[in-house]
Amino acid sequence: MAAITAALVKELRESTGAGMMDCKAALTETDGNFEAAVDWLRKKGLSKAAKKADRVAAEGLVAAIVAGKTGVVVEVNSETDFVSRNADFQTLVKNIADVALSSGKTEAAELATAAYPTGGTVAEAITTGIATIGENLTLRRAASLAVSDGVVGRYVHGQVVDGQGKIAVIVALESTGDKEVLAKLAREIAMHVASANPQAMEAAGLDPALLEREKNLLREKNAGKPANVLEKIVESGIKTYAKEVCLLDQVSNHPEHAGKIIAQAVKEVEGKAGAPIAIKGFVRYALGEGIEKATSDFAAEVAAAAKG
Known about the structure:
By secondary structure, the chain is α+β, with helices and mostly antiparallel strands. The protein folds into three domains: 6-52, Helicase, Ruva Protein, domain 3 (Orthogonal Bundle); 59-195 and 273-291, Elongation factor Ts, dimerisation domain (Tetrahydropterin Synthase, Chain A, 2-Layer Sandwich), CATH 3.30.479; 203-245, Orthogonal Bundle (GTP Cyclohydrolase I, Chain A, domain 1), CATH 1.10.286. The protein has helices at 6-16, 20-29, 34-44, 49-52, 87-103, 108-112, 122-133, 179-196, 208-221, 227-245, 262-273, 298-307; strands spanning 59-67, 70-78, 138-146, 150-157, 164-165, 167-174, 278-286. It has a four-stranded antiparallel beta sheet with strand order 3-2-1-5. A three-stranded antiparallel beta sheet has the order 4-6-7, covered by helices on one side. The protein is elongated and about 80 Å long. The protein starts with 5 loop residues before the first helix and ends with a helix. 37% of the residues are buried.
């Protein structure tokens, strides 16, 4: 039997795109014969992964899970919406979210190297998923929030299975108050965030590039006016814009807090909770946002999926 070296496993992986553990198994099963190992992987469907890696993956699922005082959100993409109904894919997404929560790794490249529950790494589990499901799958991003005392609440919109859907939000509330009251408020704020899509907690946190773009739009809309008048319009417009896109200044869209801005709603709940409440942060993931996806009709998507 030929020696199965790390270099040989690496070469097989680069050649086939299969996971490291799968490549090692293939070489073991074929007594270290490289070509036979390639055929072994092909028979198992594991060498297909590399061929699919350049396909655009903008569908899939976002997930939010919470345990104790910590919550995470992850996005795992697929090529078509059909895959979001696939039980194997849903399990993959859940396990990746669990790994992010338990390991504390939320940078995608780092999370990909974390140990997967059934063996190997997250990256290798994704490669196996590509071969099994027949589509390109990618771990796009992950994030977490935690509090020293309080709760992290979640909300998933367009839920396909528990904790997984089209929009996932987590909200962290720092407080020593009643945890049931806090949990209810955290979920209500998460629902608001899912709908209103705030860009920051408050004006100071807004992306300077976002503000500059808004200023340029205001200048274009009011072109031709005197410089001093134009600058006052821009200044006023930016203040209005900030109130519209900053969470604490947004008018709550939850029926229980109708007509009140989020900051007021939180202040009112403090009485029920029995302690001050601070929103420490929020994360909102909308599936596929920012990914450029080639448009195709339904029939074309079905045909593409059928080709594998």
